[in-house]
Amino acid sequence: MYRFLRTTILALLVGLPGAAAADGEQSAKARRVMTWVPPYAIGDSKARLGESFDGLGIKDGITHLGLQFWNPGKEGGIELVTRFKEVNDSRVSELREWGHAHGVRVMLCVYNGTSSGWDWDLARSAFDIHREDFVDALVTETLRLKLDGVDIDLEGKGDLDASKDAFVRFIKELSARLRAEGKELSVDTFAYKWHAPRQSWWPDILPHVDGLNVMGYAETGASADDWRSYAALKEAAGIHSSRLLIGMPGNAAQWQATPVADHLGWVADDDSVGLAIWDARLEDPVWRTRNTWLEIKRIRGTAEQGGAQNP
């Protein structure tokens, strides 16, 4: 009875400013580290998940695994991506079992990528015109497949500020529904003032998510200038910086004239923000070394893993 009342109260409060992440901000040492399995590289990603890099592996460093397997439906539902043969319930179950066996939370990742590119009209139809059906579909599929939450990867190119209010409304409603089920929500975002969702949307999104994954990748860095710096990204997140995950490219050994070890070191030394690696294939060899995963393990720190946190 107590848990029911507590869950209900939190679901009602989630629409209020500052009422998002359950039980307050994450502690400084409870860091999120996330990577993704792309729908076009399931076999390669699955093989990489099982590899050992001189005694350490992905299982020792990540806390969350996103399965980028779903598109919005044209009428507000969701559907498994059909143009990749390996995307099916069986693959979802295999990866969920791998994650839960290693204390990793496995997330349903819905994205608006199509064979023609990123389709913002498809995304907007889902989160705006068919919002209630879209929210229902995401929650229902998460529960059916026993996943730990939802990752929203809806990307649009250009000046799309007109979509901000509808997108934020969608995130608030989805957040409340997922929290009522003890599930998590994360959102993928562009790093600065271009495209959508963008940095100017963060103040309205951050109070309602458990993680905000910044897709800066090679455009941002530990030693970069101005908005490109990790310090600037953290400052933009304000009091919710512990929900911010700095995105890094797993196919590069260096970017912004700085080696991957220094980028990882900045995040590890900060003791606040988390890490997002695109993607689980870890295509550059430097990402498949013991030293790299020792640093990633340091970023994760003492974060509890295994199953979604109860609200």
Number of domains: 1
Structural class: alpha/beta
Flag low-confidence runs: 1-28, 303-311
User: How would you write the strand order of the largest sheet?
Assistant: 1-2-4-7-8-9-10-13
How much helicity do the residues have? Answer: 25-40%
Shape: globular
Residue share in β-strands: 15-25%
Could you describe the 3D structure shown?
It is a single chain. This protein has one domain (30-300): Glycosidases (TIM Barrel). The chain is built from 10 helices and 13 strands. The strands form 3 sheets. An 8-stranded parallel beta barrel has the order 1-2-4-7-8-9-10-13, surrounded by 8 helices. The chain is an alpha/beta fold and 311 residues long. It is globular. It has helices at residues 2-13, 42-49, 89-101, 120-129, 131-144, 164-180, 202-205, 230-237, 260-270, 290-300, and strands spanning 33-37, 64-72, 78-80, 105-111, 113-114, 117-118, 149-153, 184-189, 211-214, 244-249, 254-255, 258-259, 274-278. Strand 2 and strand 3 form a beta hairpin.
Give the secondary structure arrangement, pairings included:
Layout: H1 2-13, E1 33-37, H2 42-49, E2 64-72, E3 78-80, H3 89-101, E4 105-111, E5 113-114, E6 117-118, H4 120-129, H5 131-144, E7 149-153, H6 164-180, E8 184-189, H7 202-205, E9 211-214, H8 230-237, E10 244-249, E11 254-255, E12 258-259, H9 260-270, E13 274-278, H10 290-300
Parallel strand pairs: 1-2, 1-13, 2-4, 4-7, 7-8, 8-9, 9-10, 10-13
Antiparallel strand pairs: 2-3, 5-6, 11-12
